[in-house]
Amino acid sequence: MKKIGILFGQERSFPQAFIERVNSKNVKGIQAEAVTIDKVMQGAPTEYAVIIDRISQDVPFYRAYLKNAAISGTAVINNPFWWSADEKFFNNALAVKVGVPVPKTVLLPSKQMPDDTTGDSFSNLAYPLDWEGIFEHIGFPAFMKPYAGGGWKNVYKLENREDFFQAYNETGQLVMMLQEAIDFDSYFRCYGIGGKHVKIMHYEPRNPHHLRYAAKHDVSDAKLKEMEDLVLKICNSLGYDFNTVEFAIRDGVPYAIDFCNPAPDAERTSVGQENFDWVVETAANFAIEKAKAQKPGRDNLTWGTFIQSAVKKKKLA
Ligand SMILES: Nc1ncnc2c1ncn2[C@@H]1O[C@H](COP(=O)(O)OP(=O)(O)OP(=O)(O)O)[C@@H](O)[C@H]1O
Ligand SMILES: [Mg+2]
After folding, report:
1. What is the C-alpha to C-alpha distance for residues 181 and 277, in angstroms, rounded to an integer?
2. For residue 138, how far is its CA from the centre of ligand 2 (angstroms)?
3. Which of 64, 105, 204, 313 could link 179 by a cystine bridge, Cβ 3.0 to 4.6 Å?
4. Separation of 181 CA from ligand 1 center, angstroms?
5. Among candidates 198, 282, 278, which has minimal Cα distance to 233?
6. What is the pLDDT of residue 169?
7. Could you tell which of 54, 91, 143, 259 is best to mutate to test the pocket of ligand 1, judged by most ligand atoms within 8 Å of the CB?
8. Domain that includes residue 133, residue range
9. Does 143 sit in the ligand 1 pocket, CB within 6 Å?
10. What is the pLDDT of residue 291?
11. Within the chain, which residues score under 70 in pLDDT?
12. Which CATH number characterizes residue 25's domain?
């Protein structure tokens, strides 16, 4: 029997529906359940062939548990090592390299110094920073947001440099990015699953929360196909099995805005019944496929093409 486990936090619709959907398919030798964690011993395998991780971004103990599970062969969705390594600014840099349009973005040192550092810890940092050069490059209006994070926390829209400095002063020890605002005609949020399945959801971030997925944008089939290809390119470059990619379309160009979402919102009440059914069904089928292919004792994680080609080049050198 191969078990598929799901590890989750406060969600109350997706995990339960996922377990039911997998089990209702009655695939011989495969069963889904909520993960149970008790003693976590180094190098000891878990009872799960596959674990869908929906929460380790908030629970460091779970992240460490999942890495320990992965080394004994559990296929963890998403790869906990890559998830620990990347962040939004690096992902933007990777998007630039693989030809995905992204807004102009710069990284800013935190306004306040990290704990246990002093001015002496920053001999390498120019002071003052070339703010003029930064503002000239990005322009206004601009967005400022944490280089790692989600849930619209500490996301600022800024009209001018006075706005900027006022907001920056509030950001404490957070590392922020300053980003060109895309004045978009339409906005889409897309699930990407298994590096091959894409669901493009019409989305309107300017609507109140409960109406964001009720949007309906005018969009050609060619544009939908272009976004689908970009979602796959992003997810395969990063190596995420389960992710959402958001696009803001300006003058026909889909700019990737937010695409580091390895535990994307999948609650029925936020995404709506149709999108919910798609994500439950597609995640269930993908997890079953992963469980069938999983080989105990080996690495069964997905690694993105960025890492894969780096390793290949090293081997050739
Ligand atoms: N460069 C930008 N141009 C236009 N709009 C933007 C830009 N950056 C962010 N936004 C707006 O701000 C919202 C929140 O930003 P973003 O998605 O990057 O943050 P987040 O904290 O990761 O949110 P979540 O993970 O909940 O989606 C976006 O949905 C979008 O409406
Ligand atoms: Mg977002």
Report:
1. 33
2. 20
3. 105
4. 10
5. 198
6. 98
7. 143
8. 104-180
9. yes
10. 98
11. none
12. 3.40.50.20
- 16: burial class by Cβ within 10 Å (0-12, 13-18, 19+)? middle
Residue ID of nearest Cα to ligand 1 atom 19: 152
Q: Does 57 sit in the ligand 1 pocket, CB within 6 Å?
A: no
Residue 111 lies in a domain: yes
CB of 205 shorter than 6 A to ligand 1: yes
Which ligand is the nearest neighbour of the Cα of 150? Answer: 1
Give bridge partners of residue 5 from the DSSP assignment. Answer: 33, 51
CATH number at residue 171: 3.30.1490.20
Per the domain annotation, does 143 fall within a domain? Answer: yes
Residue 130 inside a domain? The answer is: yes
Domain boundary among 154, 180, 206: 180
**179 Cβ inside 6 Å of ligand 1:** yes
| Residue 297, SS3 per DSSP | coil
Are 63 and 109 in a shared domain?
A: no
Ligand 1 in contact with 155 (CB < 6 A)? yes
Q: How many contiguous H segments (helices) and E segments (strands) does the chain have? A: 10, 12
| Ligand 1 centre distance from Cα of residue 117 (Å) | 31
Same domain, yes or no, for 110 and 172? yes
Looking at residue 314, its pLDDT comes to 83
How many CB atoms are located within 10 Å of the residue 216 CB? Answer: 8
Same domain, residue pair 76 and 111: no
Q: Is residue 21 part of a domain?
A: yes
Yes or no: say if 260 and 78 are a contact pair by the CB < 8 Å rule.
no
Q: pTM for the complete prediction? A: 0.96
pLDDT tens per residue, range 40-52: 999 999 999 999 9
**Nearest Cα residue to atom 2 of ligand 1:** 181
Q: How many domains does the chain have?
A: 2
Domain boundary among 180, 209, 239: 180
CA dist., res. 199 & res. 188, Å (int): 10
